[in-house]
Amino acid sequence: MLKVSRYELILEVIKEKKNIKIEELIERLNVSEATIRRDLTFLEEAGKIKRVHGGAVLIDSQEESLLYRREIFSEEKDNIGKFAASLIEKGSTIYLDAGTSVFAMIKYLSGIENIKVITNGISHIDELNNKRIETYLIGGKIKTLTGALVGGTAAMSLKNFNFDLAFMGANGIDIYGYSTPDSEEALIKSEASKRAGKTYFLCDESKFNKRSLINFCSLEDSYLITNAKEIDDNIKNKLKGLFIVNQ
């Protein structure tokens, strides 16, 4: 069983029972104690659970940590990111938001000449700097869970820039548009989209038919890049453009 599948099963079991013993997880998943302990350690570091004596309990959070989101659908995100990078022409000015699918683009930017990147993703900076890409980090309040700069100060900072292209993620996508549980992050995503010639959303299949608290961009204003093979026609028909990335 893939480790990502184990993480999902462990979380399902803990959600069902609220707390669980290691011995029960070993029996339910048919894996070794060492494997379960490693999985629980990762999920605790990712902010999904809390380890207790002999087991674990669930942490109720609206959002998933950066560590956890990078691990989930990592291959699909890499494929989406590679395709997204292929859309960028030399000399472009682009915006990269703090999402993990967007982060997957960065390693494919090296061969594109004279691009400029503006980002609110603190976690992107080392990778962009290593690639020697001219990069501007906006100001704002640090959102520690996702490594994003958000809030009114960040929105004001964004008003100094214009982008040829913006690349963004979302917590959910349905017929009403793209959504996030955080009002401050919604403000940044909305402002970045307004300042871009084209806005591309990078959404793996897990984001479909989910709706978070705040809608920040409509389908009609966006191009969607995804690995999802089955997409509601009502969503397809509203989009400016759709790119389905196969493995």
From TrEMBL:
It holds the Pfam family DeoRC. Keywords: DNA-binding, Transcription, Transcription regulation. It comes from the Bacteria. Residues 3-58 form the HTH deoR-type domain. InterPro entries: Carb_Metab_HTH_regulators (IPR050313), DeoR-like_C (IPR014036), DeoR_HTH (IPR001034), NagB/RpiA_transferase-like (IPR037171), Tscrpt_reg_HTH_DeoR_CS (IPR018356), WH-like_DNA-bd_sf (IPR036388), WH_DNA-bd_sf (IPR036390). PROSITE patterns: HTH_DEOR_1, HTH_DEOR_2. PANTHER family: HTH-TYPE TRANSCRIPTIONAL REGULATOR SRLR-RELATED, TRANSCRIPTIONAL REGULATOR, DEOR FAMILY. This is Transcription-repair coupling factor. It comes from Brachyspira murdochii.
